[in-house]
Amino acid sequence: MKTTTLIAAAAATVLTLGGVSACGSSSSDSGSGSGGTVASGLIFGGPAEFKTRTDGIPGLQKTYGVKFAKYTVTDTGGPVTVGALKRGQIDAADLFTTDPSIEANDFVVLEDPKSNFKAQNIVPIINKTKATDGTKQVLNAIQAKLTTDGLGALLDKIQNDKEDPDAVAKEWLDDQDLDGAGTLAKGVSLTVGSANFPENVVLADIYADALSNQGATVTKKLNIGSREKYYPALKSGSLDLFPEYTGTILAYLDATSTVSTPDDVYAALAKALPANLVALDKADAEDSDAVVVTKQTAEKYDLKSIADLARTAK
Amino acid sequence: MIGSVLGWLLDPEHWRSTPFDTGIWAQLGAHVGFTLIALAIAVLLALPAGLVIGHTGRGSWLVSAANAVRALPTVGVLVLLVVVISPHFYGRTNAGFLIPTEIVLVVLAVPPILSNAYAGVQNVPPQVRDAAFGMGMTGPQVLGRVELPNALPLIFSGFRSAMLQVIATATIASYVTLGGLGRFIYDGLAQKDYPQMIGGAVLVAALALISDLLVALVQRYAVSRGVSRRFRTDTGPDSRTAVLVEEDVR
Amino acid sequence: MSVDVLPLDASSSPLAFWSYFLDHRSTDLGWLWDHTWLSVVPVVVGLVLALPLGWLARRHAWVYPPMMSVTGLLYTIPSIALFVLIPPLFGLSVLSPLQVPIALSVYSTSLLVRVVADGLAAVPSETVQAATALGYRPLARFTRVELPIAVPVITAGLRVAIVANVSIVAVAGTIGLDNLGRLFDQGFTLSVNEPYYPPIVLGIVLCVLLALVLDAVVLVVDRLLTPWRRAVAAR
Amino acid sequence: MIRFDAATKRYPDGTVAVDQLTLEAPSGAITVLVGPSGCGKTTSLRMVNRMIEPTSGTVWLDDTDTASLPAHELRRRIGYVIQNAGLFPHRTVLDNVATVPLLLGEDRRRARASALELVERVGLDPALAKRYPAQLSGGQQQRVGVARALAADPPVMLMDEPFSAVDPVVREQLQDEFLRLQGELGKTIVFVTHDIDEAIKLGDQVAVLRVGGTLAQLATPAELLARPIDAFVAGFVGRDRGYRALAFAHGRNLPVREEPTVAVGSSHPGSAAGLAGWILAVDAERRPQGWLPTADELDETVTDSRLHRGGTLATQGGALRSALDACLSSPSGRGVVVDDDGRLLGSVTAREVLELIEERER
Q1: Distance CA B3, CA A60 (A)
Q2: A149, A217, A222, D360: most buried by Cβ count inside 10 Å?
Q3: Nearest CA among C187, B89, C202, B191 for reference residue A79
């Protein structure tokens, strides 16, 4: 019996070439005529952790009553997710609001009126010993100028024009008049890290370059994989500065936290951080998770908000 | 740590599939599926080629070329192929990721099978081949009735090496969204679910081990005792010639 | 920090890898160096560990089967899993650059133990007996007679191990450790809307070149260590 | 009958392995090709079954030009035995022997049954039939090799140094067995060896080849020893060829004289008077056991341990070579001559053997 299961599974997973069919949703094109919700005919794609995160699949179900037909693990807002959504392997995806490929592909970001997703303001997390007045001043000046749209523009340059993140960072500092040489951070030596997606890299480059201009001795350790890899390094002191997102770092530190507005999240984060780490000013710029669908899907089901996914399909 | 890994492995919930979570049985099936497809293609390509090259002595550059392919970084080739191939597939299909993955796995499996089939035929003692021709066997008869049976130990060792590499490497299918046991490793890493991640690694190792045992069993019956020298009177160590068959990346 | 505003290169042709390399030379060379030592050091460690283990397996017949089972088992653990498992096992920080060399040393040792044992097994027993009869003690016989004769087999194994390592190290690049594998991650990340080949192709080219060079180095060492084989070949 | 007609093998690099070889191997006889390495003897042999194709010239098998047949069909008609036997390691002895009959389409059971007969015929224990080659000694493997070549009962056999990889004692057994078998079967055999003694022992005719692949001399063994055609053949045949030629001179009219004996186990030696120091000891069947020194205490029991066993035995009707050797190896100087059953006939001295030789030369 187990052999049969194995063979059937092998056939289903490999040979049908389908990301579908696990629960009999024949295809999104035919909709589910049987009176299910819109979501029950759709396949959702996103990173593995979105499946279990409180504001991920469980959150969507709890807040909006949205239940997808199936979950396909793709990547964290990267090429796999975008490609899969674009080419119809999945119908809805977890992408990030600053992602230029949303605009490039005419994807539709579904509104989140009930704030399922936590606020995701950009925030530098820094080791307390390195948080001198000078470094704080340099970094907070940057934080004050970061906007969501501005971030999207930076990302576009990297992703679509293939510009070097460090060059983009320098260019931005120049544009914002933040590239002046000085001595604010003189005598500080620190290691700046970043996760392995372009936005995080360019933010780290911006921090690092500005501090370097102000006399700090900076070492870059960019493109470190996921948070599970870099956070312990940050905590243990082998990294000193990291561009973070208020919502995700809070969720990482305190999985039970339910706050979602920018200020609540920021306040909760300050409490959740260990004693040796401190969050500097949060920026207006936000890069939050979003449920994204293609234009065709949005039009077909008349989708504007995540809540619409829970409607009965026509 | 060991306890929580065991707990994860022994939880029947983890073996069943739900719409959101593909269970161990299904991922095991997918993993076996990837492996079987890759090995079948690799054997179809490499075994006849290796036998014929060994038999005729012509085209041995192909063996060297296949071995040089081992220098290719598996991940790099996978990424390149995904980037090239996946945009051509639309709709509910994972072919855009499956095809690159299978190509990478086949590329990985071909060199050991090819070079061992070649070496196996080459290693048949010249006087045995001479006797076979001298008795009036035709070329294909010599290959099929004499060279192949004598090359079997090496062919099996090449196949086993290829199989272990493919099973280990099939985990990177999950790097490009496919299923398979690698899913547990990558998902466990992302979800900070270390028992799941280690459990996945344990499952891969177990699959490799069990597959190797099964093939060893087949080998026992497929290879003539005259070649394997497993005689009842012989108490010496197993005389399987372990030619360097170069395991590679997983 | 060097002030290097890099020239823009938007060409995504696969052949643009060279100008991509020139544009990011210092980073890429750094990764090449990381990749090199990550590939080489484990093989050296593996050899140092495999020599006594292989000798033991050769010396005592009963050691051979269990040792081969254990090393074979270690070899089946997928590298990605081993990279993640090693830090907690060895009490290292998660980002420690040591996890890759440790994991690869495990693989290299596993591979080389068998190679050393089989290489020693290939030493003609008459030769060993002759050495014993000439009065060599076991250790001297091992280092001065058996080992030199086993060199060709062992270097063949080293070549396999080092080439395999170059490929496995690249896997570590995809989880954010510095080496040429990072180029694949970069290329993949930048291929969101259309393929962006230069970093991917550059990574493959550099990995292959590195593998070929390291392979050649082992080959040269092999030649130097076994002058008698050259004498035979030249005849 | 196998006939080489100006057969030549020239390799692309210009070396000539066999040069204009013309030679006939008569039916039912053993023709030995012998010569130093590089003389093309194996090449010549392999041209017969076209394991090597002649560059020019023809090899005839009876009235058939061997080139006119598909090579594999030609080979199935010709038995082929090579050095180290070349047995198939993956097949049992029985299946090795049955190879050609099976190739010829014979039914498996019959092929095996006749293979088993052949196994016995070449002097092997039938219990070995189920073993694999790796479980046999070199001599046993070689016998299987011969059986395998005989399996399809080919009229012609090619043997390429079949006995050279075994030790001298086994080699001699194999040679004797081979001659016995040939006595029964009467195959047309071409036999290659580098060992001139083997050539002389086995050949009905011997072809000596010289380096470069030319035929130096084709003759019967006796003639070859007696009248080598040139210095090369003389040198190759060897220094003591005069003595070895005696192997072909029969000893029928040897003047055998009666020899006094004592019986092993007896305590009374009988009359030892007038004997030059040694008396022959025999067993109850009058088979010679050794020589007893007459200086010993003759009244003691004759035991094995007191005997000198140095002497070889000659047979009446055997070759003069063995007669002379019996004389030379005997401590008493008297060569012991026995009948075919090994019973004492009498003795002969070296002087008498030499006189016989001189007489014949006159």
Answers
A1: 33
A2: A222
A3: C187
Task: Give C5's contacts in chain A (Cβ within 8 Å).
Answer: 167, 170-171
What is the Cα–Cα distance from A58 to A50, expressed in whole angstroms? 9
Does some domain include residue B37? yes
Pairing state of beta strands A122-127 and A108-109?
A: unpaired
B249 and C79: CB-CB below 8 Å? yes
Which range marks the domain in which residue C26 is found? 15-126+153-202+217-228
ipTM of the complex: 0.79
Task: Tell whether B62 lies on the interface with C, counting CB pairs under 8 A.
Answer: no
Q: Do C24 and A224 touch (CB under 8 A)?
A: no
Total domains in the fold of chain C: 1
CATH 3.40.630.30 fits D261-361, yes or no: no
When pLDDT is averaged across residues B92-98 and rounded to a whole number, the result is 87
Identify the closest residue of chain A to B25 by CA–CA distance: A6
Answer yes or no: do B20 and A51 touch at CB < 8 A: yes
Over residues C90-118, the pLDDT tens digits come to: 877 655 678 888 989 998 999 899 889 88
Confidence of residue A77 (pLDDT cuts 50, 70, 90): confident
The structure's pTM equals 0.82
B17 contact A CB<8A:
yes
Separation between Cα atoms, residue B165 and residue B116, nearest integer Å: 15
**Percent of chain B's residues with pLDDT above 70:** 92
Domain count, chain A: 2
Tell whether B168 lies on the interface with C, counting CB pairs under 8 A. Answer: yes
Is residue B245 very low, low, confident or very high in pLDDT (cuts 50, 70, 90)? very low
Q: State which residues form the domain around A251.
A: 122-279
Res D9: pLDDT: 94
Virtual CA dihedral for D154, D158, D162, D164, nearest 10 degrees? 160
- State the pLDDT confidence band at A97, using cuts at 50, 70 and 90: confident
Six token digits for residue D334? 């008297």
What band does A19 get if pLDDT is binned at 50, 70 and 90? very low
Residue C134 forms contact with A (CB below 8 Å)? no
Q: Does B189 touch chain C (CB under 8 A)?
A: yes
- Same domain, residue pair A141 and A266: yes
Task: Give the CATH number of the domain where residue C69 resides.
Answer: 1.10.3720.10
Chain C partners (3+ C-beta pairs within 8 A): A, B
D178-205 per-position pLDDT tens digit: 999 999 999 999 999 999 989 998 999 9
- Helix H or strand E encompassing A63: helix A57-64
When mean pLDDT is compared across B25-34, B105-114, B232-241, the lowest value belongs to: B232-241
In a domain, A96, yes or no: yes
Among C residues 16-75, those touching chain A with beta carbons less than 8 Å apart: 23-24
Q: Is the predicted pLDDT of residue D238 greater than 90, yes or no?
A: no
Q: What is the DSSP letter of D247?
A: G
CATH assignment at residue A182 = 3.10.105.10
Distance between first and last Cα of chain B: 25
pLDDT digit string, tens, across residues D328-351: 888 888 899 988 888 888 999 888
Q: Are A138 and A245 found together in one domain? A: yes
What architecture (CATH level 2) is domain D2-238? 3-Layer(aba) Sandwich (3.40)
Report yes or no on A284 lying in a domain.
no
Kindly determine whether residue B227 and residue D84, on different chains, have CB atoms separated by under 8 Å.
no
Q: Where are the domains of chain D?
A: 2-238, 261-361
Establish if C148 belongs to a structural domain. Answer: no
Do A267 and A127 belong to one domain? yes
Band the pLDDT of C39: cuts 50, 70, 90: very high
User: Percent of chain D having pLDDT more than 70?
Assistant: 95
Give domain status of residue B101, yes or no.
yes
Residue D51: CB partners within 8 Å, gap ≥ 6?
B130, B133, B134, D75
Cβ distance of B192 and A228 shorter than 8 Å:
yes
Residue B80 burial by CB count (10 A; 0-12/13-18/19+): exposed, middle or buried? Answer: buried
Instruction: Indicate the helix (H) or strand (E) that contains A95.
Output: strand A92-96
Domain membership of residue A161 (yes or no) is yes
Owning domain of residue B136: 25-181+240-249
Is the pair B, D in contact (3+ CB pairs within 8 Å)? yes
Contacts of A226 in chain B (CB under 8 A): 189-190
